[in-house]
Amino acid sequence: MVSASTTRPATSLRVLVETAAEMGIGLDVALAGTGLTGDDFGDTASEVTIDQEMQAVENIAAVYPAEAGLGVAVGERMHVNSFGIWGFAVLTSPTFRAAVDTAMDYIRLSYAFAHIEFREEGADARLVFDLAELPPAVRSYVLERQSIVTLHFAREVVDERELSEFRIETTRSASYAETLAERSGLDVVANAPHDALAFPRRMLDLDVPRSDPVTLRYCLEQCDALTARLDAETQPWSARVRDVLTEDIARDHQVGWAAERLAVNERTLRRRLADEHTTFRQLYAETRLSIARELLETAGLSVEAVARRVGYAEPASFARSFARHYGETPGRVRRARAD
After folding, report:
1. Where in the chain does DSSP place strands (E)?
2. 209/256 same-domain check
């Protein structure tokens, strides 16, 4: 499953609650337990966590009037422009196979909830969804929404008549499959060994009409940049704090300095570090001593010089802190290097 704490644009959540509103499901019901209000995702810059979006899915699914179809209803409203640069990268790929490869390479940019695997098996190709770790209501929603979204992209490549050759495979019962078939207009196979969207493998060789190598190159560069940002954002906050401390460890920094460097307010940073069972002062002390030990072991500096390098005004206080943390004195560590 994708990390539940990862943030992403609120686009898919916005579509979800708008769809629910048309069915008479109010915002208070949809957002119960998420900690969100309508103001929290009212513009294109808004972001939410995957955990918050999954909670909204569970809330709405609990009052949705049918066994299947919530994901279909949302998926039908999510077209290429809902996916930003990822969608354009997919649609400017040269072939359907290349489009699938591009989609899979940058799947984290597609509002995915779970791991998706692409398989080629005999005459079939499949997008297989790993839904086992998701809440039951979210599993059906992900299968339905992702299948319908994939069909939107496939419409750019294959003839409308060929879309009927796509089928949904579900691990759920015949009752669910029958309802989903009615809602989606696709064949649905019940009691399958996996949850997947399957289609004829031969379609992978079809050309994409909107293919454009220049636009594709630009889109892929932007996807790389967005993925790098996601990698940074999924790094634990304690690791981020250590990184900024390492850049300027010699000064006696306060938590407000780190918060400013990490573009987050001080209260939020304190809360996120508390969630990781640590504090700024603890990280600061540990980082200073870690760098100090590395310098003693590798740089050949004196204890006094190392103390100054990591921001201690007095070598004696440095030596006491070092000994408490490592169980041996800095002088002993330095001598061991010399030996």
Report:
1. 7-9, 47-49, 116-121, 124-129, 167-169, 187-189, 195-200
2. no
